[in-house]
Sequence to fold (348 residues):
Amino acid sequence: MSGRRFAFWVVAFGLLLFPLGELAPPAASEPKKAPGALVIKEGRKVSWEGWQFSWSIHARNGLVLENVFFRGRSVLKYAGLAEIFVPYNRGAPRPHDFGAGIAPRLVELFPGKDCVPAAVSCLAWNAHGKAEGKRVVMMHEEATGLCYLGNLGRAYGKTLVLWCAYNLSGYYYVSRWHFREDGCLTPEIGLTGPLQHVGKGDASTHGSVVGKGKVFAPSHVHNIYYCLDFDIDGAENNVVEELNYRQDKPGSPSGKHAWTRLKKETARPASAENFRSWRVMSPTSKNALGLPRSYELVPGSSGIYRGAADEKFAQAELWVTKHHAREHPRDSRPLSTILPSYTSRGDE
Fold:
């Protein structure tokens, strides 16, 4: 299966897009380079430390990235949140938080108040990329910490953070994109807010007593879906491969790993036992080591949720589909409706 690759990824907290074989740690004697300038054109076009990208606000999907490049080569055509599914243990409710769209639910942000203390270059814009009115998108630099040690030289990295917040069904979601200067891209999301659907009662297998007076709160899961439209150094020849590790036999001290190409549109579950991960690659484009240029998707979930038997969209962490112009993000239907239909075509 080749061409532009859509990857729908469900995670609890985040994932890491890591460039394979592109970069090498700095030598101990290598002089420290001057920091790259942060360049912003019209608010929504950003250039920083080898990264170039645009951001915009989509009515349904909120803050999204478009035309993402690193060191002059394309990485992503599109990246953004696609859905948030919040099922409760007792079977109901099962809300899809996007509804008609999350853009109207963006929270106003304030420079000097909402930036983290260590942040520098704190900037904020409204939905149109202007530094005026209700500002809902913020960007700043922060340190990534120690990257390399020993004979590789001690190097401290930095990252550019583009972020926003949403008020969805009583929860405040903070959505961040980390652009690391070594080429890694990390989506991240967290949430806070008062528990919903609380009532009086004793604890049970469906939830817990919280606070005083036997206030009962049903347990629930926040499943975050991202849509990533990969464009690794050109869209036409991108392919997806899956990594699995297996012991030679149960109880054996030895094992083997292998990359397997996914040749058709498919849904793939996560597997911690097999150290499963995926990479999107361009066989025709070579990196500095002479290997196919690629990005690996490293799972970052804290758990696995499968849902009810008829909730087919919850049966896998990765959905690999071929690009079609009328599909996501143009399709405004709930992701639970459209995901299973995408892979049922069996496109190669």
User: Anything to note?
Assistant: Residues 240 and 280 are 5 Å apart (CA to CA).
